[in-house]
Amino acid sequence: xxxxxxxxxxxxxxxxxxxxxxxxxxxxxxxxxxxxxxxxxxxxxxxxxxxxxxxxxxxxxxxxxxxxxxxxxxxxxx
Amino acid sequence: xxxxxxxxxxxxxxxxxxxxxxxxxxxxxxxxxxxxxxxxxxxxxxxxxxxxxxxxxxxxxxxxxxxxxxxxxxxxxxxxxxxxxxxxxxxxxxxxxxxxxxxxxxxxxxxxxxxxxxxxxxxxxxxxxxxxxxxxxxxxxxxxxxxxxxxxxxxxxxxxxxxxxxxxxxxxxxxxxxxxxxxxxxxxxxxxxxxxxxxxxxxxxxxxxx
Lengths: 78, 210
Known about the structure:
heterodimer; A: mainly alpha; 0% strand; elongated; B: mainly alpha; Rna Polymerase Sigma Factor, Chain: A; Arc Repressor Mutant, subunit A; 2 domains
């Protein structure tokens, strides 16, 4: 996985793609599993590196992830 | 064999998920569908509230987003019930449909109300977003000039159109999916490939590091 380099200039950072990135289709297909495993305390970084890479680069999917995480967390607190 | 009768599948299910599946497939299905719809309405409502500061409309229009997202999510969950494998909780799986529908409905609403307009002067704002610092104006200009050439020479027409909409004009991705009648994955992939090509061109010219 190619982690973003904070020393890079903004344009270089934007143009840097991560080959591990699975894209929106696969990330969204597994988003519920990813969220529940995360809330269960599993090491999702190690288990789903392609989803981690995708959520780092895709604003709309990251927004959906934040929403589902908030929703699932609220469910567990009820 | 139906998934709900498989011992392996049932073993993985938490009690609440098992109850939801049994009720949605049982004799009192209609009541269970009503509860599912009510639950997804709450999920969609909570999601638009969470995004409120980032959604540029409110009031009845936002209420419509919640209503439509919950209705379509309920239909989608029921249609895909046999696809649920128990790898997540049923409620998390079902909530995902409501949240994705919120994104979809917001994108569609924005497209209907404003469409996609590309500003021919959009390149002028690039130094503010991608500049390398006020003390390096010449370097920024050289970088962006080369980028502009690469956008013309390296990208396919579709990649260029997507790059210009999303990067230059900051069109939301979910609005562009409606405009181009495609899905999020297809646009993301096109932009991903465009970024890779543009980076290779700038690296080849020694303007950014390998």
